[in-house]
Amino acid sequence: MKTYRVLVVEDDAPVRNLITTTLRANDYRYIAVSGGEEAVMETASHNPDIVLLDLGLPDMDGVEVIRRVRSWSNVPIIVISARNEDEDKIDALDAGADDYLTKPFSVNELLARLRVTQRRLMIMNAGGASDSVFVNGQLRIDYAAGCAYLGEEELRLTPIEYKILCLMAQNVGKVLTHKYITQQVWGSSWENDVVSLRVFMATLRKKLHAAPDMPQYIQTHVGVGYRMQRVDG
Ligand code: CA
Question: Is 40 helix (H, G, I), strand (E, B) or coil?
Answer without folding.
Answer: helix
